[in-house]
Amino acid sequence: MRLVLYTGKGGVGKTTTAAATAVCAARRGRRTLVASADAAHSLGDVFERRLGPAPVTLASGLDAVEIDARVEVRRYWGRIESFLVEFFRHQGIEPVVAEELALLPGAEEVTALLAVEEFAVSGGYDLIVLDCAPTDATLRLVTLPDVAQKSLRVLLPLVRMLAGVTAPIARRLVEVPLPDARVFGDVDELVNRQLRPLAERLTDRQTSVRLVVTPERMVIDESRRAWTELALFDVGCDAIVLNRVLPPEAGREDFFRDWMRVQEDRRREVEALFAPHPVLCAPMRSDEVTGLERLATHGEALFAGVEPEAVLSTAPRVVFRRDGDAYLAVVPLPGADPAQLEVAKVEDELTITTGLRRRSLKLPRRMASLVLEAARLDGTSLKVRLRRAGTT
Ligand SMILES: Nc1ncnc2c1ncn2[C@@H]1O[C@H](COP(=O)(O)OP(=O)(O)O)[C@@H](O)[C@H]1O
Ligand SMILES: [Mg+2]
Questions:
Q1: Peptide bond preceding 105: is omega within 30 degrees of 0, i.e. cis?
Q2: Where in the chain are all domains bearing CATH 2.60.40.790?
Q3: Cα–Cα distance between 330 and 222 in angstroms, integer?
Q4: How far is the CA of 295 from the centre of ligand 1 (A)?
Q5: Around ion ligand 2, which residues have CB less than 5 A away?
Q6: Cβ count within 10 A of residue 173
């Protein structure tokens, strides 16, 4: 099963591109589901149909859904959340703040993804196209399975210990609210049966993110940041979609001729910045792109000559290898800003921070006891050298 996620700055054409991709793939015989995970749904508007949380068939081989993340949060997170609220409140935290804390950041996004996972394992689709929220929320979406897995893994033994065989005594001694047994079951279920497969799905080679940009500097900059952070979490990007490119006929007007020159510069910039990913261009239309026919035309122009569901390029992965007496970890970090980069080794993990986002990489066992010697950006990868303590 192939999963393609579209993200980018607000208004650049994510929903339009996702819908056009799905229409084209379905017309080529792929059983396709297009799903909206953006709380501000507009997939229904693009198809000119009312959509909801259950798939609606729009054409042969083409289904669409709008996932209601809030309902999903209650479904997947409900009992854990009520326990956490109780727990935080007991620590003297204001109820309103406790509720905020219990809503792990990104919980809405990740639960939308859990709903997608259900469709993925159902076996009913060859391709799922996900129309994501703007970049920040999408980054939370792809990074949360990893982060949530870690925090819940810490929480679980702690809660277990408190509620151990001595529960009645412990209850009196520590006077903390103890969750009932179902909460353990829920946390276990969430971590082991849901978040783990989700993290695996996101880093699978059959999953790709496509960044949608317009030929504008601010839009391109935001996507570059997203690109680095996706690489940090080992989520592959396979193509860039450059939307709203002025068509040749616009050059008949002086006003647009200048714009076309600027756009041409931006296009070359995008190609250079995101190499080796292909840049697919979609023209600016004279009207909004809605309805199956217009979406199909738009998709054909975008995917001229390539299969919409193909893996259009592959990103390099994290590599660990021996380097003389030392070891090397090579982490692809395209577009990373050296000034924003921090690398540290904490126990058996390598912690890489780019700007606000941090990823911990578990080191292979034979590298776990080494010490950090040097880290440097080399082209599009970060090279970290580790050596045995006491050697130089
Ligand atoms: N290539 C295009 N030409 C003309 N209008 C477009 C194009 N791409 C998107 N639009 C229009 O721009 C608006 C925003 O597009 P949308 O796909 O909803 O963006 P996003 O999902 O990124 O917020 C919509 O009205 C859409 O019809
Ligand atoms: Mg949208």
A1: no
A2: 319-387
A3: 24
A4: 11
A5: 14-15, 42
A6: 10
